Amino acid sequence: MSVNNARRFGKILRQGQNFPQKVLGLIVCILLGMSCSLVYAGMAIAPGSTLPEFEIEMPTLPEMRAYLGIKDGSAFSLSQIPAELIVVEFFYIFCHKCHQNAPLANQLYKSIKEDKELSKNTKMIGIGLASEPKEIALYKQRFKVEFPLFPDPQKEAKTKSKVKRVPLTIVVDKSGKVLMSHLGVIKNIDVFLGYIRKHHKAL
């Protein structure tokens, strides 16, 4: 049940003359909790699997295109980024855990950028599943995100990747193979960065 349906249900119940308010509040809270839990239902992309190809809107800023090493056009795919490793953060605009993860993702990006070896051929992007360009712009501004963030207005990334639980941070190689997958807030950047370095050395 969606949040809107839960609210409609609560409105219908409020119309009942003898319905106790405490019971009503409990039912509405349960329904809202169920709707929120559905956002986090599903399985993460497993290491060893291949991330399906999907198109991403071309970044408007020249510096972002230069960072990713992609040419002009209307769209691109991850396979077009000339990098050995690509870190991809999947998130939802209104996801509270994604908001918690935002500054940590920023820190991860800065750590990769400052690492002499990783910075050569490791890139990082974020994809706001089912989001609009304006929403991404506001999200980027609010959390001061320095790495490229992309919208998903046609829900192509959401549909093809089948990502349901977020925030989800994965590392893929240039063939699209998923090397590592982390679901939830990245609590220890150093440990996460250590895993990336390990995969980088194995290339």
Topology at a glance:
Elements: H1 3-14, H2 21-39, E1 56-57, H3 62-68, E2 75-76, E3 85-91, H4 96-114, H5 118-121, E4 122-128, H6 133-142, E5 149-150, H7 156-161, E6 168-173, E7 178-183, H8 189-201
Parallel strand pairs: 3-4, 4-5
Antiparallel strand pairs: 1-2, 3-6, 6-7
Features:
single chain; about 200 residues; alpha/beta; Glutaredoxin; 5-stranded mixed beta sheet; two-stranded antiparallel sheet; 8 helices
Largest sheet: 5 strands, mixed
Instruction: Estimate what percentage of residues fall within beta strands.
Output: 15-25%
Write the CATH homologous superfamily of the largest domain: Glutaredoxin
Give the proportion of residues in helices. 40-55%
Low-confidence stretches: 22-42
Number of helices: 8
How much is the radius of gyration in Å? 20 Å
Number of domains: 2
Look at the structure and give the CATH class of the largest domain. Answer: Alpha Beta
Number of strands: 7
Structural class: alpha/beta
Distance between the termini: 46 Å
Q: What sort of overall outline do the alpha carbons produce when their principal axes are compared? A: globular
CATH architecture of the largest domain: 3-Layer(aba) Sandwich
Strand order, largest beta sheet: 5-4-3-6-7
List the helices and strands in order. Answer: HHEHEEHHEHEHEEH
What name is given to the CATH topology of the largest domain? Glutaredoxin
Mean pLDDT: 84
